[in-house]
Target: Type I restriction enzyme, R subunit
Amino acid sequence: MVERDLKLAGWKRDQICDEYPITDGRILAAGGRPRRGLHLRADYGLEYRPGMPIAVVEVKRTSIKADDGIEQAKRYAKKLEVPFAYATNGLKIQEIDLDAGMITEIDAYPSPDELWARYRRAKGLDEGLATDLVLTPFDQSLTNWDNTPKVPRYYQRLAVNKTLEAIGQGKDRVLLVLATGTGKTLVAYQIVKKLSRGKWIEGRPPKVLYLADRNVLVDQPKDEYFVQGFGEAVHKLGGGVAKLGRHIYFALYQSLDQQGKAATGDQKALFEKFGKDYFDLIIVDECHRGSAKEDSNWRRILDYFDSAVQVGLTATPIRERDADTYRYFGDPVYEYSLKDGIEDGFLAPYRVRRTNINVDVYGWRPESGQVDRYGTPIPDRDYTQPDFERVLEIKERTEVAAQYLTDLLRKSESKGMDKTIVFCVDSDHASRMRIALNNLNQDLSRQYGNDYVVRITSKDGEAGLAHLDEFKKVDSDTPVIAVTSRLLSTGVDMPTVRNIVIFRPIGSMTEFKQIVGRGTRLFKEKNKFSFDIIDFVYATRMFNDPTFDGPPVRRYEDRVDDDGHLIESVEEDLTSEQSGVTESEAEYEQQEEGALDPGAGMSDDELISTLTTRARRLYVDGQDVFIWNDTLYVMDTDSGRPKMIEYRVFAGGQVRKLNLSPTELRGQWARAKSRADILRELRGQGIDIKVLAEQMDDHDADPLDLLLSAAWELPAMTRRERARRVRREHRKFLDSFAADAREILEFVLDKYIEHGPVELRPNVLTLPPLREMGSPSELAARFGGGDELREALDRLGLYVYDAA
Model:
């Protein structure tokens, strides 16, 4: 009926898209196999051109009022950023005009042209270049690794079209902020494809320069996207030679800034061999990096080609005194955050294990006159976490962290084969961590030819890049653990990574977001739907920073006179707060090594200053180092931002949301059916009973007692204590059954002690040794039939759980 009415209004079949996909549904990773939450699908999306929705339709049955679909229709329209939505039951049509703020009952749907004209007015699009570019079809020639087409998601279409609108309206600096793992490269490709097809430049395809500061950020989009879509039109610049006649160029800033060969007398940088107006479009990937700094050599390149439209892509814009992404590119035309991606089900949710080492908590102080491994006197002072691996290296600290990580990986379902990145302080620290992990996993290292654990840093050169190529492949099992410093913190697509290990202090919010982003990609083909962050250095405190999931803010200090009148607002210097350690790994490693005895002739203060700025450290062995404690955290969805909350506290909150008193919870838990309903609801909220038992360090307690303790701090009983109580206080109930039936109930209690309440239901009859005693129907006959068996088990459950 709805399709008939739409066709009567002039909508063609290919413009009416039923079951219009919007989101995939949040990943619910607790309790066994991951599941999807509610996905968003509009009953119909109305597209003026393919990939260009301008309205949605929510359809209800004729027995339900059309008005009941209004809120759903509004939600879909807001997500897609279309100004029109319709709610109908086939008999009545309600039009929701979000631009005008009106809800109106209408007799018939507007025609495509009529609605498109209203759409353009709402969006401020005139009949010009911007409209033509937006209406240019999306490219559908690219395929995923499994040969399925790369279809842009709703937010990618929005990012592309908003960029094209801005370009069509004459804006020459455009910023897109998209969380790591959300497909910035596909967005960049579609922008270039639509500009090429839409005849942005009259008479020829646009000349494009794609800029980045790492080879992997250049080669991956070039080879996996642009070469597939544009063929021989694509060329990578470098080595001082530029092949002209192409129209899509890829380059490193460093390569473009290189001068010509001295033998030719040509001292021009490579980029200066092009005319200032040679390029029409420059795409700046990871634009928060060098190009954002006003005084950087790399900025010279962008300033040289200042007549080109420049589009900046980043997940982490920065706003510092001398490096401001917004000051250069302007406010983002579109933003899509990590929180958005997780909520929509396009990014993997995460858990955090905060693991404290005793010397990190309390610090370390040498004994009087103590020297290090090489005989260097150790200045007598307290050494704390920022000193470790820079000033002072404690061998056992690295070994204890490696042992903890090994134990954690070995307990996983893959038995140590979950791909993991370990971020260390520098290459030297990464080397020692690599050796420690290798030696703790000799069996796997031997099995995989010493490629189970590898180091990938700037010092590893081509060998490290070869390991990186294998590590990021989705169809490669090894390497399993990649130990690095900064080299893998940004721009590397590694969808199968399940663990991010942070073993060095992080002072920069930008860097922290980039590191977390290494795990956010989903890969359903290998059942990767979530990831863990193992944090040894309390870096994940940044999750609780209000700026974590939003853009950085400028902060101002207001100065007032004695009467309280505003004199001036002075921008505060956030550089020290946001930047942290700013030198690159390569710069740090290139600092002077120093002698084995760097402290000769120096005071303690001079020695510490020297050790802090030079690569030589103090090396200490034989210290008492151990894991102080570890706590699991998850994201608090109630706060509206990625605030971390301790797992036990989170679980208690979800239990209380059931709106049951402790007594009511016990009563429902006692019955198999209602217990299954409760478990299903808790799993949907992210509660895993096994994880809760681990965090409460009580594997013998009944799951009910874990929930009661988490929610109301009630004392827990072991399953053995509950079973003993039933046998002592409810002997009359057990003895009321014939011996052959009582035998089954006694067996069920034994299984309950061993496995928990899963055994308090009829399928227990299929377990050994009961299944050897007869078929389920034969065993149920001992109680008089199946109904009597279920009643007996429910009563047994009531007696098990009637303890306070």
Observations:
- Residues 553-560, 569-604, 610-615 have pLDDT under 50 and may be disordered.
- The chain has five domains: 2-124, 131-336, 338-641, 642-716, 720-800.
